[in-house]
Write a structure and sequence with these properties.
63% of the residues lie in helices and 10% in strands. By secondary structure, the protein is of the alpha/beta class. The strands form two sheets. It has a six-stranded mixed β-sheet, sandwiched between helices. A hairpin with a 2-residue loop joins strand 4 and strand 5. The structure holds adenosine-5'-triphosphate (ATP).
Length: 607
């Protein structure tokens, strides 16, 4: 029962619960060993006074020394175990939690990322876990250990004198009661301080991400002002939290210390009444002086234990978020991708599917100038079309018409609200996202590259590919020509997101990656849109290798690309408006024909 409570309240693993229990046990034993040491001092003092007052012989020094050595050894062993089970193993727990959270995030639906921002999630994985780490190592075991040890000591003291026991220990439940009672006062301040910390982190991240745009638009001063305001507010919230924590903790500590004068007062009155002698007072004072030490340490950090409950709640929210499931075996009859009456909205209820490889890329499907659909508004309405194996199917339409959304649904980044997406007759909503994505290669306009070598970046397409296979894919994607110019060829590090390469070179690397994967279905966000003529020709050559005999769905922005497509699906307002071959559609004289005409006219514009 205690284990279940700890798991729920502090988001612990089974192993972590076991460690906290062991930490509590070993800390209790340590505290009791220290108390036993106090009784040694008491016995020595008692013998000494008996010698002075009754002329009894002094305790033998060898007996005392042996007792001292036994005490020191027992304390060493107890503290070693207590240290191991509190400070020592805590890193295993926090490491396990971070990995568990990261693993969970990897498999969560994209809808989850729609309503949580990255700085907040990073703060949960790093900051919240760090708070938990501190609470496990410095507070939880020690607090339970101190409580159990004081309960044991209370029972022992009650045998000596019940009134004195109450006078010595009354402050512990009162101090803890005040602390736990005022916990609710602290929670809003802790949440505000964390929210401001996340806001500051977000702004710093945005400033760094957008540094070029900020400089280009002369917005540096404005950004810095906003950033310093956020950081100031964050500091103020942090300070306010410290003040409130200080008041709460100091009050509890003062109350805790009141036990010493009350013990002396009660003891003196009992001595005056002749009920106890000075040795009992001495014994009680020894106990009182020791019993608060472990509480002192816990109280200094107890606000972290309170904060850790909110941290745990945020971690549990991620852990309890439902994952997208599906069958692990996927054997479609062919690789036709078929949309059957598909409707979809990006509401809270929409369920999206995340995938580790695709996560970064998918975020880049966000439309630059698309109209923003209101939450819950349908962005695809009763869409039906088939992208056949061996054909290029182009999705065409105005900005915001739903082209990228169709591509996302085709790869099960999200699941439709109504209707089905089938691959080779199999409903992909029933297939595990990672298994499904093994059948897809994706090339998007904004390529995501890692700060790795050219070789490492291409190999992401297929981790077990040999160097020769990587080089062959790179050659087919026309990468050779620029890789040869790099100082260390394929072993050159290309900087964060390939910052040392041009747009065309980055795109060719992403095509090489897709070629290496050699997946039967290719999703392509018209990759050549922002390139100069020479780069575009090279990328087009590379693409022709990639697309041969595959099911290709291309999000086409330019009519020139569409001319070579086998099939065109024209979307408008989330509906299929026209469908057919490019020739048929031009002959129809509808939206497609108008778009072709508009682009033809714009191609003749001169500056
Ligand atoms: N992650 C999202 N959350 C909420 N709404 C979204 C999201 N992504 C897109 N939308 C909305 O869905 C609608 C269709 O967007 P989509 O990106 O599919 O259009 P598109 O045709 O690909 O546009 P573009 O050609 O500009 O890239 C738009 O109204 C857009 O605002």
């Amino acid at each position: 029962m205690i284990g279940a409570h700890l798991k729920k309240t502090y988001a612990m693993t089974d192993h972590g619960v076991k460690n906290v229990m062991m930490g509590t046990l070993t800390t209790t034993i340590t505290n009791l060993v220290i108390m036993a040491g106090m009784s040694l001092v008491y016995l020595l003092m008692q013998g000494f006074i008996a010698h002075l007052t009754q002329g009894e012989s002094l305790p033998a020094p060898t007996q005392f020394l042996i007792a001292l050595v036994v005490f020191a050894l027992a304390l060493f062993v107890a503290q070693l175990f207590a240290y191991t089970y509190t400070y020592g193993v805590v890193y295993e727990e926090s490491g396990a939690q971070r990995i568990h959270l990261a693993e969970r995030l990897r498999k969560l639906p994209l809808s989850f990322f729609g309503h949580r921002d990255l700085a907040d999630l990073t703060e949960t994985i790093m900051g919240d876990v760090a708070i938990m780490e501190h609470a496990y190592s410095h507070v939880l075991g020690q607090l339970f250990g101190a409580l159990i040890a004081s309960a044991v000591v209370a029972v022992g003291l009650a045998f000596y004198n019940f009134e004195l026991m109450v006078a010595a220990l009354w402050s512990i439940p009162i101090a803890l009661g005040i602390l736990f009672g005022l916990r609710k006062l602290l929670a809003p301040a802790q949440n505000r301080a964390r929210a401001m910390k996340v806001a500051a982190a977000e702004e710093i991240q945005e400033t760094i991400d957008c540094i070029r745009e900020i400089r280009a638009t002369n917005q540096g001063a404005r950004y810095m002002k906003a950033l310093s305001q956020t950081i100031d507010t964050s500091e103020r919230e942090g300070f306010a939290l410290e003040v409130i924590s200080g008041i709460v903790v100091t009050s509890a500590m003062i109350i805790l210390r009141l036990s010493l004068p009350t013990t002396i007062l009660v003891a003196l009155s009992l001595i005056a009444e002749g009920k106890i002698d000075f040795m009992v007072l001495f014994g009680f004072l020894l106990v009182v002086s020791r019993i608060y030490a472990p509480f002192d340490q816990c109280l200094m950090l107890i606000t972290e234990l309170f904060a850790s409950r909110s941290s745990a709640a945020r971690m549990l929210a991620i852990q309890e978020e439902p994952l997208a499931g599906g069958a692990l075996s996927f054997t479609p009859q062919n690789h036709d991708v078929c949309f059957e009456h598909v409707s979809f909205s990006y509401g809270e209820t929409g369920s999206g599917i995340a995938d580790s490889q695709m996560l970064e890329r998918s975020t880049q499907l966000e439309p630059a100038g698309a109209s923003v659909a209101a939450a819950g508004q349908q962005v695809l309405k009763d869409i039906s079309f088939t992208a056949k194996e061996g054909e290029v199917t182009a999705l065409v339409g105005p900005s915001g018409s739903g082209k990228s959304t169709c591509a996302r649904l085709a790869a099960r980044f999200w699941d439709p609200e109504d209707g089905r997406v089938l691959v080779g007759g199999v409903d992909i909503a029933q297939v595990d996202p990672e298994v499904l994505l093994g059948h897809y290669a994706v090339v998007f306009q904004d390529v995501v590259l890692f700060d790795d070598t050219v070789m490492g970046n291409i190999r992401l397409g297929r981790r077990d590919a040999t160097d020769e296979e990587v080089r062959a894919a790179a050659a087919a994607a026309n990468c050779d020509e620029f890789v040869e110019r790099l100082p260390e060829g394929y072993d050159t590090f290309i900087g964060e997101n390939g910052s040392k390469l041009s747009g065309g070179e980055r795109q060719r690397i992403s095509i090489a990656r897709a070629l290496l994967k050699d997946a039967p279905i290719v999703l392509l966000d018209e990759a050549t849109a922002s390139l100069d003529v020479e780069s575009e020709t090279k990328v087009q050559e590379a693409l022709s290798c990639l697309l041969a005999n595959k099911t290709v769905i291309v999000i086409a922005h330019r009519m020139r690309t569409v001319a070579d497509a086998d099939h065109v699906v024209v979307l408008d307002g989330g509906r299929v408006l026209e469908e057919g071959s490019p020739c048929e559609l031009r002959a129809q004289g509808g939206l497609f024909a108008r778009m072709v005409e508009l682009q033809r006219e714009s191609a003749t514009w001169t500056l």
